[in-house]
């Protein structure tokens, strides 16, 4: 590599003004966009090194997901579509923060420590969401990749899940799908159409209203609509004409528990909200008395898992199905999964990488965060077994048909990462085959009332947790105080954790009384404020 070139471009075009340190968090770097130029240049170089090390294509996505427009961020995607390995998160953080004068030595050290052969080829796929700052940040990343002599494929404005899909396709010689945006759209739509032969079926009506958070999902949804024709009518609102993620999008709707701006007023209409980079999805509707009903990630997970279970049983194949959630999963959903569906369910820490890895331990693993981030992953050997069974004429027709339905269903899934639009098509497929409307879907169980709050503290790292964030081990005394509060509420459950994306502590509380849950959450937040160094006159901020 030409270190002089790397150094001179760094100093002249992408200097580290050292305004503030940044950290590779749960989903990459996220900060005000004007702090990120040097970070993108350096991440461009780092993706080239990672690509050389892995001898595979690496992805670089520029997005700040559900944050508002002035923020931006970057995350790197490893060869199998997973989030960057955690050991490299530390390398990325260090590289992003060092002064310009140390950049070359830091790169040489990474090459040595990580046993990277500088002469290996490298290839990087980059994409960005619709944020205005995305264009210049992508230029900075491209400068970095070019300076390190990497090969770039720039897909411009795409969703985060599309980028993951493209990385996986490139690394699997097209066996997962064609490595183009069109290949992505056609793969999902063709699979959906093989399941869904008509627009309506019993209570199911093939029309949805989509809140696209004024983000990149609006573009992808329009592309889907063009090839879906009238098999599914997607009525898109918040389609890019308003401010990104402002009073709209999956995160807003989930946390505020209310419809987004511009939502259709019609009752019993099936509505969908996705986030700014289209990797989260939730459903909602208003009933006859205009009461808001949320069907979140837990609800989507249970719908998918219950239908998969039905097909697995009909196919008579030996397949181990499992479901992965986080502590944010509503207690009622966990009870429903373990006691009614009788599917093994495990809890992991928050963040896609944790859920994804755990789900890979099952033959077919469904993972979802309550916030709508999730997908289904299937072991290659299991997928092969299902495909073979679907064509095995020695098997009873019922088993063959079930295997063939499983194959189509799995093809609707973007297995590489949670994908709002793929998940939405999957939900639509299942509602269609079941002949359900949204009210029938919601009937499976009743959510426990819940509330999330955030608390500002001097140093959020004083909060340490264990047991997938369900128990707080530091500061001392906080967990026993939480236990004491929990004991006062019927079906009470609460936990606290330091956010990985904001400088705050998050509080979650649920119990079986909607009139008491606010008070319960406020008491837990107050305990955090008192025992974990709360700051500010107003200890508790609604999430
Ligand atoms: C990131 C995570 C998301 C998680 C959220 C938690 C990815 C791709 N995204 O958005 O899964 O739910 O962070 O945020 O991993 P928090 O740590 O601020 O609560
Ligand atoms: Mg997102």
TrEMBL record:
Cofactor: binding details: Binds 1 Mg(2+) ion per subunit.
Gene Ontology MF: a single term: metal ion binding
Residue numbers binding substrate: 369-371, 497-501, 506
Keywords: Carbohydrate metabolism, Cell wall biogenesis/degradation, Isomerase, Magnesium, Metal-binding, Phosphoprotein
Boundaries of every Alpha-D-phosphohexomutase C-terminal domain copy: 475-526
GO biological process: carbohydrate metabolic process; cell wall organization; UDP-N-acetylglucosamine biosynthetic process
Domain Alpha-D-phosphohexomutase alpha/beta/alpha, residue spans: 52-91, 114-169
CC cofactor: Mg(2+)
Active site feature: 65 (phosphoserine intermediate)
Entries under InterPro entries matching the protein: A-D-PHexomutase_a/b/a-I, A-D-PHexomutase_a/b/a-I/II/III, A-D-PHexomutase_C, A-D-PHexomutase_C_sf, AMG1_II, AMG1_III, PAGM
EC number per UniProt: 5.4.2.3
EC main group: isomerase
Keyword DNA damage attached: no
Domain Phosphoacetylglucosamine mutase AMG1: 199-282, 296-436
Xref: Pfam families: AMG1_II (PF21405), AMG1_III (PF21404), PGM_PMM_I (PF02878), PGM_PMM_IV (PF00408)
Annotated residues for binding of Mg(2+): 65, 275, 277, 279
SUPFAM superfamilies: Phosphoglucomutase, C-terminal domain, Phosphoglucomutase, first 3 domains
Catalytic activity as recorded in UniProt: N-acetyl-alpha-D-glucosamine 1-phosphate = N-acetyl-D-glucosamine 6-phosphate
Pathway in which the depicted protein is active: Nucleotide-sugar biosynthesis; UDP-N-acetyl-alpha-D-glucosamine biosynthesis; N-acetyl-alpha-D-glucosamine 1-phosphate from alpha-D-glucosamine 6-phosphate (route I): step 2/2
This protein's record includes keyword Cell wall biogenesis/degradation: yes
Family that this chain belongs to: Belongs to the phosphohexose mutase family.
Function: Catalyzes the conversion of GlcNAc-6-P into GlcNAc-1-P during the synthesis of uridine diphosphate/UDP-GlcNAc, which is a biosynthetic precursor of chitin and also supplies the amino sugars for N-linked oligosaccharides of glycoproteins. Catalyzes the conversion of GlcNAc-6-P into GlcNAc-1-P during the synthesis of uridine diphosphate/UDP-GlcNAc, a sugar nucleotide critical to multiple glycosylation pathways including protein N- and O-glycosylation.
Descriptive protein name: Phosphoacetylglucosamine mutase
């Amino acid at each position: 590599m030409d270190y002089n070139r790397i150094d001179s471009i760094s100093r002249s075009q992408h200097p580290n003004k050292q305004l503030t340190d940044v950290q590779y968090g749960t989903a990459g770097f996220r900060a005000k966009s004007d702090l990120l130029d040097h970070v993108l240049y350096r991440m461009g170089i780092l993706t080239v090194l990672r690509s050389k090390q892995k001898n595979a294509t690496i992805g670089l996505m520029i997005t700040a997901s559900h944050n508002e427009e002035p923020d931006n961020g970057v995350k790197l995607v490893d060869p199998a579509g997973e989030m960057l390995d955690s050991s490299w998160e530390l390398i990325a953080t260090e590289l992003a923060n060092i002064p310009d004068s140390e950049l070359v030595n830091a790169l040489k050290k990474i090459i040595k420590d990580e046993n990277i052969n500088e002469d290996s080829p490298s290839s990087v796929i980059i994409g960005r969401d619709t944020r205005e700052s995305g264009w210049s940040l992508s230029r900075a990343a491209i400068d970095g990749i070019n300076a390190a002599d990497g090969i770039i494929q720039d897909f411009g404005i795409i969703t985060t899940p599309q980028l993951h899909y493209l990385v996986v396709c490139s690394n699997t010689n097209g066996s997962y799908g064609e490595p183009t945006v069109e290949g992505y759209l056609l793969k999902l739509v063709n699979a959906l159409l093989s399941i869904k032969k008509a627009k309506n079926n019993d209570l199911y009506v093939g029309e949805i209203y989509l809140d696209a958070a004024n983000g990149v999902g609006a573009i992808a949804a329009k592309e889907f609509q063009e090839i879906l024709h009238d098999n599914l009518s997607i009525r898109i609102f918040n389609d890019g004409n308003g401010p990104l993620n402002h009073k709209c999008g999956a995160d807003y709707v989930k946390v505020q528990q209310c419809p987004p701006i511009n939502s259709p007023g019609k009752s019993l209409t099936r509505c969908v909200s996705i986030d700014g980079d289209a990797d989260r999805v939730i459903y909602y509707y208003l009933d006859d008395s205009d009461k808001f009903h949320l069907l979140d990630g837990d609800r989507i997970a249970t719908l998918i898992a219950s239908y998969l279970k039905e097909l697995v049983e009909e196919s008579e194949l030996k397949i181990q199905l499992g479901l992965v959630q986080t502590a944010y999963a509503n207690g009622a959903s966990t009870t429903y999964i373990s006691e009614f569906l009788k599917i093994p369910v495990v809890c992991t820490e928050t963040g896609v990488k944790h859920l994804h890895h755990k789900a890979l331990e099952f033959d077919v693993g469904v993972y979802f965060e309550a916030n709508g981030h999730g997908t289904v992953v299937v072991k290659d050997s299991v997928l092969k077994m299902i495909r073979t069974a679907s064509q095995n004429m020695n098997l009873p027709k019922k088993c063959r048909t079930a295997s063939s339905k499983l194959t189509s269903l799995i093809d609707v899934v973007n297995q590489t990462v949670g994908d709002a639009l793929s998940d939405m098509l999957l939900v639509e497929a299942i509602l269609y085959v079941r002949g359900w409307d949204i009210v029938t879907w919601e009937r499976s169980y009743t959510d426990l009332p819940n509330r999330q709050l955030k608390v500002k503290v001097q140093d959020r790292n004083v909060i340490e947790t264990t047991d997938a964030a369900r128990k707080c081990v530091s500061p001392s005394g906080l967990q026993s105080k939480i236990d004491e509060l929990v004991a006062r509420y019927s079906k009470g459950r609460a936990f606290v954790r330091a956010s990985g994306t904001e400088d705050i502590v998050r509080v979650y509380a649920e119990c079986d009384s909607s009139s008491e849950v606010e008070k319960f959450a406020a008491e837990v937040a107050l305990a955090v404020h008192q025992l974990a160094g709360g700051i500010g006159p107003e200890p508790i901020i609604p999430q």
